[in-house]
Design goal:
Low-confidence stretches: 152-166, 177-187
Number of strands: 5
Number of helices: 7
Oligomer: single chain
Shape: globular
Strand content: 5-15%
Distance between the termini: 33 Å
Strand order of the largest sheet: 3-2-1-4-5
Structural class: alpha/beta
Order of helices and strands: EHEHEHEHEHHH
C-alpha cells in the first residue's frame, strides 16, 4: 500500500455490516487501515463491529471499536471524546449510516418517517456538529481535515417506495456544500 493515510485518525460510523460479507463501513475501515490510518470504528451492533475489527486487524490495521447510537447527541459527543482519548484527535470523519424502511408517503407511518430522518439525516448532522464543535480537532489546519459522507447508491436511482431514504440526498449534499463554503471563506 502507499501509506496515503499514514497516522491519520478516522472515525468510521456504520463500520459493521447489516449482513454477512462486506459493507461500505467495513470496507472503508479495512482499506483506510491498509493505507496507514488509525480506525475508530463505530456501530450500534456489537457483533457486526466485532467482525470489522477482526478483518481490520487481520489486514494489519490499528482499530478501536465503539458502540454508539449516532442519532443521540449525547452519545455522539461521547463517541468523539472517546476517539480523542484513544488517538488524540480526529482527522477524518466517515458518515456511513443510512438505510430505508419500505413505504411511500401514504403507507409509511409518521413514527417510521421520523426514525428515517433521524437515521439518514440527523446522524450526519450530529457527527459533523460534534466534530466541528471543537471535539477532536487535529490542529492540522482545515485542508487536512476530511469529511466523507457515503450517500448510498439508492439516492441516485430514486427508487419508488423508499421515500424515507430519498430525504437524505439533498439536505446532506447541499448542507455539506454550504458548510464547506463557510469554512473555506473563513480560512
Amino acid at each position: 500500500m502507499t501509506g496515503r493515510l499514514q497516522d491519520r485518525v478516522a472515525i468510521v460510523t456504520g463500520a459493521g455490516c447489516v449482513g454477512p460479507g462486506w459493507g461500505n463501513g467495513r470496507a472503508v475501515s479495512v482499506r483506510f487501515a491498509e493505507e496507514g490510518a488509525k480506525i475508530f470504528a463505530v456501530d450500534l451492533n456489537p457483533d457486526a463491529l466485532k467482525e470489522t475489527i477482526e478483518r481490520t486487524e487481520a489486514a494489519g490495521g490499528e482499530i478501536t471499536g465503539h458502540i454508539c447510537d449516532i442519532t443521540d447527541g449525547w452519545a455522539v459527543t461521547e463517541m468523539v471524546k472517546a476517539c480523542v482519548e484513544r488517538f488524540g484527535r480526529v482527522d477524518i470523519l466517515v458518515n456511513n449510516v443510512g438505510g430505508s424502511a419500505k413505504g411511500g408517503p401514504v403507507e409509511m407511518p409518521e413514527e417510521v418517517w421520523d426514525r428515517q430522518v433521524d437515521f439518514n439525516l440527523k446522524s450526519v448532522f450530529l457527527t459533523c456538529k460534534k466534530r466541528a464543535a471543537g471535539h477532536g480537532r487535529s490542529g492540522r489546519g482545515c485542508h487536512r481535515q476530511h469529511l466523507v459522507d457515503i450517500g448510498p447508491a439508492l439516492d441516485r436511482r430514486r427508487p419508488v417506495g423508499l421515500c424515507g431514504h430519498q430525504g437524505r440526498r439533498d439536505p446532506v449534499f447541499q448542507g455539506g456544500s454550504r458548510s464547506n463554503m463557510r469554512r473555506a471563506a473563513s480560512g
